[in-house]
Structures are given as C-alpha cells and as structure tokens.
C-alpha cells in the first residue's frame, strides 16, 4: 500500500510555506508520497465562513511571532511579507497550470514563488513583479500568463477548492493521511505519526 500525504495548499499562507519546507523530509523518512493539491484559500474562506487569523490584530501579531519560532526551529528563512494579504488567484491558477501541463517543472515553479513571497517579501499580486520573478527563474511569463487564462486550468483549481471544502478543509495548510485531516503546520508531528502507523 502506497502511503500518501495530500497537501492542500495556497501560496499566500505563511504557515503553508513552513509546512512545504518540512513535508518532503517527512515523506522521505516515512516512505510516503507527497501529493500537492493547489486550492484557492479565498474560496475556502468564502465557502466556510472562515477568515485569516491576521484579520484579528492581536491574533495576527501572535501568529507571526509563532510562525517565526517555528521557522527558527525548522532552520528555514521566513520574512513577513509587507504586502500581506496577497490575492493569489492568478498565482494559484499558474501553479495549477504548470502542474497540469509541465509537471516536470512544478517543483521548481512553486519553489521560486514560495521564496519570492516568504523569503524575499516580494509583492506577488503585481503582474510585473510576478513576471520578473518568473523570468529570473527561467520561466516564460507570457506562457505562464496564458495558463492562468486557460478555462480547463481554472476549472481544475475550482474543482480542487470545492473538493477541499467537501472534505472538511477550512484553511491552509491542510493535509490528509487517508481520511484523517490535519490542519496547520504545527500539526506535522501528527502527520508523521499517522504515516508511521500505516
């Protein structure tokens, strides 16, 4: 039986960035496959009545302090993006398009976008900034832009988001091991535990 972690993610979540830095290692150590499923966090929030913790000032301040603690524990860079919150509709369509049409470049694609957002603090809801980041990493901005306008790509992202909500997802990151849902990068130890019990 193949052990899998289904990773529902949106680039605009700093907690998702931290989970993304750790999940490949957890999967490698447990002999599991990591399945990336792009979704639109704004769509999930709308469907579930949820909102970003950052919308509550005291909670937002705490959240970013806590994420910084985890980044130090994991030994990974994390910079609060001054442009947060980011509208990720275009980015998540691009991610979905690359996953569908150029799967061999998918990892490099999300690597450069996560880094731009949560290490370099770039304004990734500005098309010219996105184009610059893509060019710097060997991607053709026009080709990627075309993917974001592709109706079949839009449909897959919408379907992923609807499926996430049906499965009980209310935020990001959300991970499934079998039918067990784990929410938040601070639940990765439970993800690992579940994988080791299979």
TrEMBL record:
Keywords: Isomerase. Belongs to the GST superfamily. NadH family. This is 2-hydroxychromene-2-carboxylate isomerase. The keyword Transmembrane does not apply. It catalyses: 2-hydroxychromene-2-carboxylate = (3E)-4-(2-hydroxyphenyl)-2-oxobut-3-enoate. GO terms for molecular function: isomerase activity. InterPro entries: DSBA-like_thioredoxin_dom, GST_Kappa/NadH, HCCAis_GSTk, NahD-like, Thioredoxin-like_sf. Residues 4-195 form the DSBA-like thioredoxin domain. Its EC number is 5.99.1.4. It comes from Pseudomonas rustica. Pfam families: DSBA (PF01323).
């Amino acid at each position: 039986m193949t052990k899998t972690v289904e990773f529902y993610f949106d680039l605009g979540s700093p907690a998702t960035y931290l989970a993304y830095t750790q999940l490949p290692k957890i999967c490698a150590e447990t002999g599991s496959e990591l399945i990336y499923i792009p979704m639109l966090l704004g769509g999930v929030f709308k469907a579930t009545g949820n909102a970003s913790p950052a919308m509550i000032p005291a909670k937002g301040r705490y959240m970013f302090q806590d994420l910084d603690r985890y980044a130090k524990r994991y030994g990974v860079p994390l910079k609060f993006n001054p442009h947060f919150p980011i509208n990720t509709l275009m980015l998540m369509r691009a991610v979905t398009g690359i996953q569908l049409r150029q799967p061999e470049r998918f990892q490099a694609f999300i690597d450069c976008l996560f880094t731009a957002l949560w290490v370099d603090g770039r304004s990734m809801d500005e098309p010219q900034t996105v184009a610059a980041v893509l060019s710097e990493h060997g991607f053709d901005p026009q080709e990627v832009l075309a993917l974001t306008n592709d109706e079949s790509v839009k449909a897959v992202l919408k379907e992923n988001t609807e499926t996430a909500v049906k499965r009980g997802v209310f935020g990001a990151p959300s991970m499934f091991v079998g039918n067990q849902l784990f929410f938040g990068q601070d639940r990765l130890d439970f993800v690992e535990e579940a994988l080791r019990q299979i």
